[in-house]
Automatic annotation (TrEMBL):
Involved in protein export. Participates in an early event of protein translocation. Coiled coil: none annotated. The lineage of its organism: Bacteria, Bacillati, Actinomycetota, Actinomycetes, Kitasatosporales. The gene is secG. It comes from the Bacteria. This is Protein-export membrane protein SecG. Belongs to the SecG family. It is found in: Cell membrane; Membrane. Keywords: Cell membrane, Membrane, Protein transport, Translocation, Transmembrane, Transmembrane helix, Transport. The chain crosses the membrane at residues 53-72. NCBIfam families: secG. The keyword Transmembrane helix applies.
Length: 75
């Protein structure tokens, strides 16, 4: 039961994080400083941190899926 709730929470969080990324025309990350570009053309600190957080949440989401699958298999 706990892993099912964790899956719902991580799914909603992952959805929000993906929507915050900047697309072609900008995104919600502009509200948090993601729209400021450095002179070298690299991504800003806010955008890189958003990328890192998204990757961590995606890995946790994947781990919960695997655990749920194993629990269902061995029940």
């Amino acid at each position: 039961m706990g892993f099912s709730i964790a899956l719902i929470v991580f799914s909603a969080l992952l959805l929000l994080l993906v929507l915050m990324h900047k697309g072609k025309g900008g995104g919600l990350s502009d509200m948090f400083g993601g729209g400021m570009q450095s002179s070298v053309g690299g991504s800003s600190v806010a955008e890189r941190n958003l990328d890192r957080i998204t990757v961590v949440v995606a890995l946790l989401w994947f781990a919960v899926i695997v655990v749920l699958g194993l629990l269902m298999k061995f029940e």
